[in-house]
## 1
Amino acid sequence: MQPLNLPLRDWTGLRVWVIGASSGIGAALVQDALQEGAWVALSARRIDRLQAVAGGHPQALVAPLDILDTQAWQERHAQICQQFGGIDLIVFCAAEYHPERSWEVDPEGAARTLQTNLGSVYTGLSTVLPAMLARGSGGIAIVASVAGYLGLPNASVYGPSKAALINLAELLYVDLRPRGLSVYLINPGFVQTPLTAKNNFAMPALQTPQAAARAIHRGLASGRFEIHFPRRFTLALKLLRWLPYRLRFPLISRLVHP
Ligand SMILES: NC(=O)c1ccc[n+]([C@@H]2O[C@H](COP(=O)([O-])OP(=O)(O)OC[C@H]3O[C@@H](n4cnc5c(N)ncnc54)[C@H](OP(=O)(O)O)[C@@H]3O)[C@@H](O)[C@H]2O)c1
């Protein structure tokens, strides 16, 4: 079968912009891409962390960015394009997560999380798409989550933001693939990062950020649309998603602390 996207097998000289590159999965992706010969722009707010991840690599460009600052996106984009001559792949990997039950959600915090996890992707798309569409090539990789597959207590705002990203990636694929662009949807299971360090429950099939980066790399190299891992966990959740609500809800309640 034909892959749904352009397979990214050769990373030599690929110009990659990673949003959320200062820790966790984003940082591991940066190191993987640099090792494979890509040029990588690293964005997030903590400059010291970005510099540590870049490790002085000659093909790394530290490009600090607060993704809630819409003006800054244009400035960073211009800077990267000037240095690299363009962008072949943007990876939307930044997010925030606050474990909270529905009755604990504060509306201001919810708005901020939605803007960080979802709104910023629209800002990023409006920043990079004009040049990619004009060229008729480029890759958009969106890191969502299995938390977007189905409603899970504790992910009161994070879950809906990730469900929206899955929907967004699907419609982007239909919109952009005929115009020569590739759209990759990345749905990780649990990965050991600062984001999940807040969880006070046992996380099944927990992976290292390096293993996650390798799984993402393999998925991109195969030209998959959805890259989900580890499969023993993600396939179980996909199955749960297809159960009738009458069966699904009691199972989910059993998984979550009262
Ligand atoms: N860990 C998991 O189990 C898991 C599972 C499924 C999906 N994911 C997804 O994977 C992605 C990476 O998460 P992670 O686990 O690696 O978490 P992480 O280590 O906490 O990384 C989050 C990244 O987002 C950046 N970020 C947050 N707010 C930002 C802002 N306003 N402006 C710029 N950058 C911002 C952070 O950088 P600064 O703080 O330096 O700005 C950091 O680089 C996220 O989309 C997450 O939802 C994670």
## 2
Amino acid sequence: MSHPDAPAYLTEVAVDPTDVEIVVWYLWSHEPPPEAVEELITPSGVVVLRAGARDAGHTESMAAKLRPRWVPRVVQLAQRTVRRAADRWKLGAATVRVGGIDVRPSWIDRDRRGQAAGAIEVVLDTTNAFGIGSHPTTQMLLAMLQRAGLQGAEVLDLGCGTGVLAIAAAKLGARSVVAIDIDLEAVATASANVLRNGVDDIVTVSSTPLERITGTFDLIAANLSAGALASLATPMLTRARPGGALLLSGVLADQEEEVLGAFAGCRVLDRAEGDGWVALTLRCP
Ligand SMILES: C[S@@+](CC[C@H](N)C(=O)[O-])C[C@H]1O[C@@H](n2cnc3c(N)ncnc32)[C@H](O)[C@@H]1O
């Protein structure tokens, strides 16, 4: 819940640490100046700056000062109004329920009557990062995570997007979750979502390539494409503990054999199909 005195309008921008000083200067030198500037250092090192504004015009003109070098977002806190044309798709978004997990877009108010008793809630914001739980490939992995038994598990989320799977895994009892993505915007988005969901003590988000991830995991979840899964099979298998689980999604039905071929030696433990997509839980040798 926001503080009653907190500004209703914000200009929010994710920046590299080296850009913090210059962006803060740009914001404070805006006329009129911001009401306040908040710095949120995400676990990945990306810094989210939030400048409080008086009204919609103020936040928009601060954002304009940062463009095109940075990609600021304009946020109205009070009514969760979507202000950027690029964010119009958000108007059609809805809370998605998968088993005992509700994935709720942060700009949609929680419907307490619709909340199942004991349901886990994952609250997500995003501009471009995939996804908010609406895609069948994500939904099948959310269902499989619930069937996998995550209590105390060490998890790797490969291609975390908004962080939806990583956050769900943490809330399902995982001891630690390493979430990685090659897209820096996804890293910033997931980092903010991890904080939003209060699981930053469990989930670390970064752009570290899979090949540089050290250690092994009880469970690796990857919602990529069939081609990406096949090409990453070896580095994934070397990071999976013996008897560990690989949760794979993003596979079209006619690509299943190709993916299974790349993970030769693994046994299919769980399989789901929806809208022409297949998701698999494999037991590693
Ligand atoms: C389909 S989205 C899945 C997002 C989220 N995990 C979900 O299930 O909704 C795939 C994500 O994987 C990322 N990605 C693609 N190839 C990758 C790689 N080799 N290493 C890490 N991330 C990768 C993309 O940037 C994208 O954010």
